Amino acid sequence: MTGSSIPALKLNDVQKHFGSFTAVKGVTEVFAPGELICVIGPNGAGKSTLLNMICGTLRSSSGSISFGDTTIDGLAPERIARLGIARKFQVPSVFESLTTFENLRLAAPPGTDLQALTLLLHKVHLAEDRDVRGADLPHGKKQWLEIGMALAMKPKVLLLDEPTAGLSVDETRDTTRFLKELTGQVTVIVIEHDMAFVRELAARTIVMHHGAVIASGPFEDIESNEMVRDVYLGRR
Ligand SMILES: Nc1ncnc2c1ncn2[C@@H]1O[C@H](COP(=O)(O)OP(=O)(O)OP(=O)(O)O)[C@@H](O)[C@H]1O
Ligand SMILES: [Mg+2]
Q1: What is the DSSP string of 113-172?
Q2: What is the C-alpha to C-alpha distance for residues 140 and 143, in angstroms, rounded to an integer?
Q3: Which of 47, 50, 214 to mutate to test the pocket of ligand 1 (most atoms within 8 A of CB)?
Q4: Distance 80 CA to ligand 1 centre (A)
Q5: Is the distance from the beta carbon of residue 172 to the nearest atom of ligand 1 less than 6 Å?
Q6: How far is C-alpha 199 from the chain's CA centre?
Q7: How far apart are CA 116 and CA 97, in angstroms?
Q8: Which of 22, 32, 98, 101 has its CA 20 to 30 A from that of 210?
Q9: Residues 37 and 203: beta-carbon distance below 8 Å
């Protein structure tokens, strides 16, 4: 197998039980390097639980998760993060008193050069906000700064749980744009509820329901999938 054909991330029959309740049921998925993937599904489908197992904040009950050729399940979250799996948390992590640039510099490994930080600033569409303090950034841009801070560690995999929650229509559309621009550079797995966003993202879409993956494919196929429609209309 050549280096480029090794998946960035591989889930093999991953399950999560909470007592007698099974939140994630036998998920098997392969994510390619640089791939953009969207995970959708009704409330309680197991999406966040799946992401939490990948980044190590939850331990899987069975199955295996590998990152490149390293098995990562059971490793501490910090260790998984250091290997190259970044996660943007719901809790804001931006330092309000520091500027956009200072926040990025703080998140980057020591010694990261100015050019790399400037490039990153452009990547998350915040070049114009370089010297704006965290406290003064609008909500949407704060979200992007957090994504930038996660990218500062040069992860191979980036996990985003509902990154457009609370964003305006325009902010949501801009978020789609820059996530698409990351294609080929980092594997991005994004959980999302906003169907307009998912359609615009036009990525491979995985649908979860009652803990299982019920469909996976290009969004246009997912959108016309009868079973997926039924799930969203509450018919299954
Ligand atoms: N720590 C926990 N203990 C017990 N049950 C849990 C725990 N975490 C999640 N669950 C349950 O597991 C199921 C899946 O939850 P999860 O948060 O993964 O869903 P989700 O797809 O992210 O939903 P949402 O779209 O609402 O964010 C839910 O029924 C939830 O109540
Ligand atoms: Mg969730």
Answers
A1: -HHHHHHHHHHTT-GGGTT-BGGGS-HHHHHHHHHHHHHTT--SEEEEESTTTT--HHHH
A2: 5
A3: 47
A4: 22
A5: no
A6: 17
A7: 23
A8: 32
A9: yes
| CATH fold label, 3-232 | Rossmann fold (3.40.50)
Distance CA 215, CA 76 (A): 30
Cβ atoms of 117 and 124 closer than 8 Å: no
Cβ-based burial of 57 (10 A; exposed 0-12, middle 13-18, buried ≥19): middle
Residues 98, 184: Cα–Cα separation, whole Å: 31
R_g over Cα of the chain: 18
Terminal CA-to-CA distance of the chain, rounded, Å? Answer: 41
The verdict on the CB of residue 20 being under 6 Å from ligand 1 is: no
Task: Kindly report the pTM of this predicted structure.
Answer: 0.94
Determine the Cα–Cα distance for residues 11 and 208; give it in Å rounded to an integer. Answer: 14
Six token digits for residue 85 = 């799996």
Residue 195 exposure: Cα atoms within 13 Å on the Cβ side: 9
Tens of pLDDT along the chain (236 residues) come to 444 578 999 999 999 999 999 999 999 999 999 999 999 999 999 999 999 999 999 999 999 999 999 999 999 999 999 999 999 866 668 999 999 999 999 999 999 999 999 999 999 999 999 999 999 999 889 999 999 999 999 999 999 999 988 899 998 998 999 899 999 999 999 999 888 899 999 999 999 999 999 999 999 999 999 989 888 877 77
